Amino acid sequence: MTARSTKFGVDEKERFMLFLIAPAGIVLVCFEIIPILIGMNASFREWSLVNPQRTWVGPKQYIAVFTDPVFLKMVLPNTFVLMILSVGVSVALGLALASLLNRPFFGRAIMRTIILLPLTIAPVITATMMRWSFNDQFGVITIFLSCLGLPDVAWLSDRWPSFALVIMTDIWIWTPWFTIILLAAMQGLPPEPFEAARIDAATPWCIFRRVTLPMLRPVIIVCVLIRAIDAFRTFDQVWILTGGGPARSTEVFSVYAYVLAFVDLDIGRAAAAAGIGALIMLFVGVGLYRLVNRSMEVSR
Amino acid sequence: MIALALHALRRAIFAISIAVIFVVFVGPIAILGVTSIRPASGVFYIWRGTNFTFNNFVEVLHQSQVVEAMWNSFVLSTLATILSLGITVGSGYMLSRFGGWIQRSWFATIYIFRTVPYISWVLPLYLVNTRLGIYDTYIGLLLPHIAVHVCFFSWLMKGFFDGINPSMEYAALIDGCTRWGAFYRVALPAAMPGIAALAILCWLSTWNEFLFALILSGKRTPLITSTMAQFVTETGTEWNLMSATAVLAMMPALLVTIFGQKYVIRGLRM
Predict the structure, then answer these.
(1) Rounded Cα distance, B39 and B55, in Å
(2) DSSP, residue by residue, A118-182
(3) Low-confidence stretches of chain A (pLDDT beneath 70)
(4) pLDDT, tens only, B200-215
(5) Which of A98, A240, B12, B91 is the most exposed place for a label (fewest CB within 10 A)?
(6) What ipTM did this prediction achieve?
(7) Per the CB < 8 Å rule, is B25 touching A117?
(8) Predicted pLDDT of residue A266
(9) Which chain A residues are within 8 Å of B31, Cβ to Cβ?
(10) Which of A13, A18, A29, A31 is the best mutation test for B, with the most CBs of B within 10 A?
């Protein structure tokens, strides 16, 4: 008999459940939840090297962040542009690549190996090699492009070329991820609908639009959800490629908070910025989750 | 005749697109690789001249900081992998096999904390680490690296266990096995292939992790990614040495991609 001993007690099964999640829960509380609370506390204080008292100043830091023109005009638009363009282009290219690789050809195994490389190499290394390949004077790709007769672009000294390079690097890293997952999903699809479409003399494009895409929809939606959440916190590529420059014009949210904390040494305001980012992500994350659940139910 | 030409055209387009993909993904890596074996004098026009040398690697490996950073990253990745998998396997099993309010609230918790940007909790963690005196030590780096995996890995582990038929565990329970025994002796061995794939990805992601290394490690416990970043921003002109360091740092990734491809793909598909 596993009746509860008291009204608020837990039975043997629930004890086992709590026991299973205890290690993960303790780590989560100590190293994620408590730091977040400390950060929230710091965000209401004047906390910097200049002021060791850490005076309580109320919501002043949040107001400062929200009235900072860099945050409003550069950081927020950049973060969302990066998120939307990177995820959108990677999922489209990933689909295209997966369809290409989803047929037997000579060298397919090699292509599959090569496609894994961007995912296993550290983003720091990827950004380094992109920075070197697109170097203004000696970059192999810069020189190659000017040999093709394209106008010279000073990749890392203007806002939009730098930001384009950041987005391209992000797409280079994440397209393979979509490719691998979508390829696996395509190979797991039942063959009958495709045979039926072929008997009806549908064109390959029509088969892709009307058969493949609808059947892949759930996978695509989950992938986009995971990637969108991760794209919001992009840091490595931006920091190595541009460092947020020129003139802070390519800063994204993580870089902005990092610079406040470790360059300006203003812990209080950095904590406020980090808190705002976490709040934005909470809404985006919960919203996306609902969207996913609803579209999953529709497709079922 | 037209059909034949069309067929040839289609094959040509297919071959060209495969070639383009190949160049796009191999190109930057090849540029880095060639730069790493060029002498300092030949680094700016890497396709001119035929001087190749391995001195860059020798020189880099003589810098104690690089060797130390690689060793630290190796130890940290290995420990973080073992511990992260150890603590999330139970959590994933619980999410998969049980229901009720505990399961629902735990699932909501890990979903919500997965959306929190890393900087939002690593920034205050820096304050905690300096206060506790574990800033720039193994323990101060290890625990956050485990915490970062709790949410996502619990989710992935749930997926492994969802894919395993629970009837074996019910049979074990009926035969007098404890709940713990059913988990440890029956479900865990069945989930092993998935866990092995996850272990490889976990090791690589810790080796590749940059933001934590940048904020939580310093001169005493340098990690490979933060050391590389320092090269780029401080000695940004010695591209031959930098490329050599980068090639060394990407070695584990190359080895895993070539020899453990099956596991990487399996891990990514979750």
Answers:
(1) 8
(2) HHHS-HHHHHHHHHHHT-TTT-HHHHHHHHTTPPP--TTTSHHHHHHHHHHHHHHHHHHHHHHHH
(3) 1-10, 49-51, 296-300
(4) 889 998 999 999 998 8
(5) B12
(6) 0.87
(7) yes
(8) 84
(9) 129, 132-133, 140-141
(10) A31
